[in-house]
Amino acid sequence: MTEPIKDRPLLPAGRKRKTLNLSDEQVELLARIGLSNRKIAVLAGCGDKACARHFAAVLARGRAIGDRQIAGKLYEIAMGGNVPALLLLAKNRLGYADQPEQISQGNTGMVSVVENGNSPKNPPALPGPAAV
């Protein structure tokens, strides 16, 4: 005869539940500063899947708070006139993208794409032999 599900033990007989080494607050802080689930699991003393299951809400909240803090700081720096920060915000929030420069080659209809000042006719310099 089978026991009702609610009365069954959660773990097989003889197997003890692991004690986790981290509290919810500690896990949230680690997720907030950007540690991976795997590293948090190692610190907590459990496997990746068990950690993701047990701390799912805490991990999500920590990552969301960290993302909010980074976005807020980036916005603050960008609005202070930092051009690289402004460009990064424009690319990420407004969908801007770097466009490679295109050079038309006469009336052949051929177009070369130039990135970082290097084109097919102007390849990047290769390092020379080491000085002896």
What does the overall shape look like?
elongated
- How far apart the termini lie comes to 85 Å
Roughly how much helix do the residues carry, as a percent range?
Answer: 40-55%
Q: Please, how many helices?
A: 5
In percent, how much strand structure appears in the residues? 5-15%
The topology string of helices and strands comes to: HHHHHEE
What is the mean pLDDT?
80
Structural class: mainly alpha
Main beta-sheet strand count, sense and barrel state: 2 strands, antiparallel
Spans with pLDDT under 50 lasting ≥5 residues? none
Give me the count of strands. 2
Characterise this structure.
The protein is mainly alpha-helical and 132 residues long. 45% of the residues lie in helices and 6% in strands. The protein contains 5 helices and 2 strands; from the N terminus they run H-H-H-H-H-E-E. It has helices spanning 24-32, 37-44, 48-54, 56-79, 83-93, and strands at residues 101-104, 111-114. It has a two-stranded antiparallel ribbon. Helix 2 (37-44) packs across helix 3. It is elongated and about 80 Å long. The model has no long low-confidence stretch (mean pLDDT 80).
Q: What topology emerges from the helices and strands here?
A:
Layout: H1 24-32, H2 37-44, H3 48-54, H4 56-79, H5 83-93, E1 101-104, E2 111-114
Antiparallel strand pairs: 1-2
Helix pairs in contact: 1-4, 2-3, 4-5
Overview in brief:
This protein is mainly alpha-helical and 132 residues long. It has helices spanning 24-32, 37-44, 48-54, 56-79, 83-93, and strands at residues 101-104, 111-114.
